[in-house]
Design goal:
Elements (H helix, E strand, L loop, with lengths): L1 H15 L8 H7 L4 E6 L2 E6 L2 E5 L5 E7 L1 E6 L2 E6 L2 E5 L5 E7 L1 E2 L6 E6 L2 E6 L4 E7 L7
């Protein structure tokens, strides 16, 4: 069983491309104690532990705390995150830049993101400002 855990730690290191140069092999294995490790997007990798998601950088440092129920990949420097039933966006430092008040969101494209509250859609910019009112039954992303 111990050899399997070491093998898993090595595989996880290869998957996330992270090394922890200041730590010995045993400490590295213990620091890779996540239930799920995704691939890198814009320099950060989503990780999950005990049902909560966050992000680490390539050194393995947690940069977005593992407090979210779900996360998606970064797009244009922001990532959609979910807590409870509401979505919002965080930046690469973990700061909430679009409040978690939306029922559904998509990724940013050309600086705008479609968001849904109740049954209506609209668009917000990267500061969370509503730039197209949430009055539409359906919207499409810019491309």
């Amino acid at each position: 069983m111990k050899s399997f855990k070491i093998f898993l730690a090595i595989v996880a290191s290869a998957v996330i491309g992270a090394t922890f140069p200041a730590l010995n092999a045993e400490e590295q294995k213990n620091n890779l104690n996540y239930d799920y490790v995704d691939s890198f997007s814009e320099g950060l990798c989503s990780v999950q532990k005990e049902g909560k998601y966050g992000f680490i950088d390539k050194t393995g440092e947690v940069v977005v705390p593992l407090i979210y129920d779900y996360v998606r990949i970064f797009s244009e420097g922001l990532c959609s995150v979910k807590k409870g039933y509401k979505w919002g966006f965080v930046d690469k430092t973990g700061e909430v830049v679009v409040p978690l008040i939306y029922d559904e969101v998509y990724s940013f494209s050309e600086g705008l993101c479609s968001v849904k509250k109740g049954y209506k859609w609209g668009f917000v910019d990267k500061t969370g400002e509503v730039v197209v009112p949430l009055i539409y039954d359906e919207v499409y992303s810019f491309s």
